[in-house]
Amino acid sequence: MDQDHLEVAVRAARAAAVELMSRRNSRVVSEKAPRDLVTDADVAAQRAIRSALQAAYPEYAFVGEEQGENDPPDSVLRGDDTAPPCWVVDPLDGTVNYVHRLQNFAVSIGLWARGTMRLGVIYDPVYEELFTAIDGQGAYCNGRLMQPSRCVTTDQALVACSFPAGIDRHAPEIEQFVNVLENCRSLRRLGSCALNMCYVADGRLDAYWATSVKSWDAAAGIVIARQAGATITACNGGELNEWVPKFCLSSTPQLNAQMTKLLT
Predict the structure, then answer these.
(1) pLDDT 10s digits, 233-252
(2) Which tens digit of pLDDT belongs to each residue from 39-55?
(3) In CA terms, which of 82, 180, 196, 205 is 20 to 30 Å from 73?
(4) Distance of alpha carbon 24 from alpha carbon 233, whole angstroms
(5) Does 30 have pLDDT greater than 80?
(6) How far apart, in whole angstroms, are the C-alpha atoms of residue 220 and residue 233?
(7) Which residues fall within 8 angstroms of residue 259, CB to CB, at 6 or more apart?
């Protein structure tokens, strides 16, 4: 991946943000499933992203949250050498926040190639923060090099989590929540996987875990967090599956080891 890919992704993210902000006070809301919302802004933003990306790279595959474009080609999932690069897009990460006019939402664009996620762009249109990373080149917020905190123990950690829509009290995520809550400094549920991952990369959060997010929620954040120097694993401490991202992200390896013990 190179600067040209990054510039195209940034333009696409900004085009999507225009759609989101123009509809922020007049969005049309419906349910994809109980408590799982979608708006006309999600759809318009994805169309804007798709148009920009495919104009520049028409041969690339495309995965997006909306409009039934959820599945990557089989060759991508297998990691075949002949698989095309694949854009992985969430046009509006944090839809519930957006619907309720809370500020924590973002556009997320990742690019998979040669077996892993290699480029990430996440744009927060409210605070106008642009988070970017290319594999091997560091991670940046508005051009400033990011790095995670040096937190190494859960008792000093500010942690975030994500829950699935429609969770009930007997779900394993509730036990995980209580385990972490009893052991960390404080615990947040902010509502945007993409921004949570950026906040760990930038030292604003110390750890974040999620068991129910999709590839498009986490694709860009995986690259940004890794390039910033954070530690990301599966929730049990094993290797992360980027297409089924049940993960624990932490500022340091030491903190990640403690977090994953609490999650398993």
Answers:
(1) 999 999 999 999 999 999 99
(2) 888 889 999 999 999 99
(3) 196
(4) 35
(5) no
(6) 15
(7) 154, 157, 159, 180, 207, 209, 248, 250
